[in-house]
Amino acid sequence: MDAALKLARRAELLPDSPARTRLLLDCIRIAQAALPAAESASDVGVDLIGRCSDQALLSEFRRRPRGWSDGRTTIAGRTVDVRIVGTSRMFRGAYAITPAWDVELPPGWNFRQPGFGLPVVLRTDRCVDDPRCELYPAEGIYQWATAWIEYGEDGSPVLHVVDPARSDPVVVAGRSVHPYFDALSFYQLGASASRLPRQGVYGLIGGRGIGARAGVYLLQDYDPDRVPVVMIHGLGSNPIIWSELSGAIWADPALRESYQVIHVVFQTNAPLLISRLRVQHYLDRMWMLLDPEQDDPARGKMIVIGHSLGGVVSRLLAVDSGTTLWDAAFTVPPDRLEGSAEDVAGIRATFLIKPYPGACALILLAAPHKGSPRATSLTGRIARLLVGRRAPEIQALRRVADAYPESVRPELLDSYRLARLNSITTLQAMQPVRRAGEALLPAAGIRYHTIAGDLDGQGSDGVVPLESSLLPGAHSTLVVDAGHTLYRNPEAIARIIWILREEQGRRCDAGAEAGQGLDRNGASAGTPGSPRAINADRPRIDPASRSSRRDDIEVQP
């Protein structure tokens, strides 16, 4: 073992070069050979193997990031057998391998679980030979992995690359060790290459980039038995906002086994109800590709998480509107609306909505259910002029309003005729259809939770008033001293993680009424130390007394 340690120390004094890597490979070989005779130093020996392996691979992957595949290759002039196991079914061709240490993670968050080996990210271009390929990000297919080198029975070096989340403790030189696990670097690496942040903003004024990307995206291979957690972003935004929350789910072994994270991309310039219909279509497309037989357990329960506009869309995916929305827009019943069959069918699908099958629980962050004053402010008026009105679905309303004006409510006739509708106008507090829609709560049996910001006690998160973010009958409500970006707020993420744990094993059709199953403090019975969850039939907020605890809502400083 001393000889191996001397090689490791010599290598650390050398600049990166093939000669240095050869010293590190010799360190691994000698340390591994010494282990059987050094039982008392087994941990030291395995640690030394890991140390030399990490340094050798860190240099090699930086020097040669692409072209890795199963089979024989050379590292520093030595023949190495490469064994890559547990990778995505959608990978095609050779892998690019990036050390996780080279990926920048969100500050203040730790999604790494130390262990043996070097955490890395595997990547290939998105596949094109399977219809399901469209469900993967355009930037490519990324996956976490852990790599190390050890010597085989024939005395040759072997490079192992495994999925640490699927691997039981691995045996290295006769010792059982847990692979190092990095839960987020794979996603962050893909996000760093993405144009989605810019496209999300430009999409508000008609940019086509985000529209071309619109849809539902898998971050890992689909599992027919795991519950989908569908995340819907807000106005002018993109799904990369969910990186911290996604990492928190992936880093938790129990949640990782129970849930699969799914991100929605949609162009946010369209009116609210059209955005809802589009997201519905994206989900329909996903299920058609993943479960054409319609019998997977995953289809039977989804948890939908939405931020801001995405929170309102999420709520509308869980309501039965009856004719409430229709009556706010039209003067005739649905079966008497005139127009082309295609136009009428599209309008009916937009205004007559039912809960999306399987949407069993909602988590709504900073969602303007009662509109936002920003939509009617000077900034909002400018935004209404800039935000695109090119949604083709609006043209159906224009044609019907032009041909049959008596069928449309007078207060909406001009906006329909001139196609003066977009996401900003439909978030105005006094917009008739939006006002009618705010009374629509998720259907019976669907559990919903609200998380809102009250920044510095001002009664708002800076964008959405507190009153607009809260819903009566919520299964739990949390208010934190934070701004609008609650998707990265630690308290909000902790609450979402708690809700996901509460949802584990719960049936879709067995949801308790709001507050049922909670103790007098709002925590789930039998769950000591759970965050407080409140049955808020009529939330009452008194910003002047934020330090007091109320029976109807939790306020955390």
Automatic annotation (TrEMBL):
Q: Basic and acidic residues: which segments have biased composition? A: 535-557
The protein depicted here goes by the name AB hydrolase-1 domain-containing protein
Which portions of the sequence form the region Disordered?
Answer: 510-557
One Pfam family, short name please? Abhydrolase_6
Q: Which domain of life is it from?
A: Bacteria
What organism does this protein naturally occur in? Pseudoxanthomonas suwonensis
Membrane-spanning regions, if any? none
Q: Residues in domain AB hydrolase-1?
A: 229-495
InterPro entries per UniProt? AB_hydrolase_1 (IPR000073), AB_hydrolase_fold (IPR029058)
